[in-house]
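Data availability (excerpt). All sequences and predicted token strings are deposited with the supplementary files. A representative entry, Murein L,D-transpeptidase YcbB/YkuD, is shown inline so that the format can be inspected without opening the archive.
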Amino acid sequence: MILPKFLATCAACVGIAVFFLISLSSGSAHINAQAENMVRSIPATDMLPLQKNLFWLLENKPAVKFSFITDWKVSDGVDALLFTFYQENNFFPYWVTEYGPTRNAHILLSVLRRVDEEGLDLKRYRISRITALLVSRKTKDLAQLDLMLTLALYTYLGDMLEGAAASCLLDPALFSTARSTVADRKAMLHQAVSALDLRQFLKKLPPHHYEYQSLKKMLVRYRRMAGQGGWSKIPSGQTLRPGMADPRLRLLAERLFITGDLKDFSVIAPPPLLARPKPFPGPVTVTYNHISLREALLPPSWWLIPPALPPVHRLQYSNALLRAVQHFQQRYNLEQDGVIGKNTLETLNLPVENHINKIILNMERWRWLPHQLQGRRILVNIAGFRLVGMNDRKVEITMPVIVGKVGHNTPIFNHVMTYVEVNPYWNIPPSIVRNEIVDKVIENPFYLQEQRIRIFANWQEGAPEVMPGNIDWENIGRGINQFHLRQEPGPGNALGTMKFMFPNNNNVYLHDTPAHGLFRRVKRTFSHGCIRLSRPLDLASYILSNDHQMVLRKQLKAQVASRKRKIFVLNQPLPVHLIYRTARVDRNTGAAYFYDDIYGRDARLAAALFPEQKTKCRYSY
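Structure token line:
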């Protein structure tokens, strides 16, 4: 066995070496009496007691001992990594000296105390215990402090670079991108302890792209709202429509004012009074006619204090209030009709804590992706029914999309687009043939001809064609799976005029659709899992023009009109990210957008990110 170097460098290295050979060969973490007597007879250097205490702690499963991991089996890998990490430093401490914590120890702790700003749980880092150890100068406490700081940093590195959710609580089919990026934490630990500026090193760990940083700022804002009491619940009653008078408009105006949808109260009251500017953000709460207005929530340019509202019977649903309601409905992907019906009222009454949780969950999701999202890429937000084409930080194209219906959920994964196909075939998946096509053929023997669907004996290239009349549709059952059904290009093709391929095991891709009327719906879950595009020609023109291909928009239109199939292979594969985000911040307006959890994934992610009960895999790495 290789001995710790600090043993060989002390005054009596031979005696110390014998001591450790005896203690380690016994298989016990405790030093036997003979070895202990040998150590006591040797003059110790100032750091030797700390080194010895660290060595003993590292031998006793510190990850479990200090409650960073609850499963002994899982901790083995972490403990082995820690032992090697300290062994490479001759078991010298990284964060303390014999006189107490170093400057870097205080820097690390100051960063860890603010992890809640990243949407992370402070309890995860054992901050209270670490803080209690700071004032002690006992050797054993200093050794424990050093090791706990290293464990806390190890945890923080994983949370920032891989995600904090317990991976064993996440269904891989639902959260395939969770922990898909694996960081070399041991190498990162070495970088941290050797960094010239530890604070700057730690500052670079979280994602720095707009999507994450804007949510981080929004988290501060909504927590401030919560600290000011959130907003009052609007009672149920008759549907509120523009032009109506209703006492609940007072609460509606306050609700919209707090979140910035309504800019001032003049929409239902006399002109506002000009007030002298006050510092921002101040903790001031101004009350008018029992309406609390949280000045701290407003941008610094808002120095108008709303006047006293008129009597209840004079409150009216004005056009300006209508615009505020429609803005709110837009942010929550509701029908933008300005009518306060059941859905809009329920959404208005969602507590501020609900919004805070959504923001935290979506910050976690962004930690699963590469932190430097650079170059040209396509992102499809499944929950937001929206595609965005980006180049570095610039949004270059965006459009509404249709995603999979519940039961045919669009999966989440990252891939690269390799080609665009104009006038594509639709190779019908066996599940759709078995569950839908067969019944339609039984009802209408001419269905396949009407839909221009051909049948081939198998899925191999060049397979012979089979006539529909040669198949016993009534009794075929699962035997239909052997046949390859293909819809020809042209009007009515389920894929429309184009498809955008990034070959994957899920058989999911982007494509056009003949049913463009569905894009008028706000909740667009209609497909079998693929993503239907509202403007496929625009996307094709955008992709090909930026791929150094001399393909003009009018040439694409001519190719579509020809009904002839053509494939454009991309010179540069284009990254595609199918993501699931229920909260985002608009780049142009800075407004927060919140979406329904259409597949019920938020609750599952919350259980993995903040498990209330200890599980064997909690804090597993």
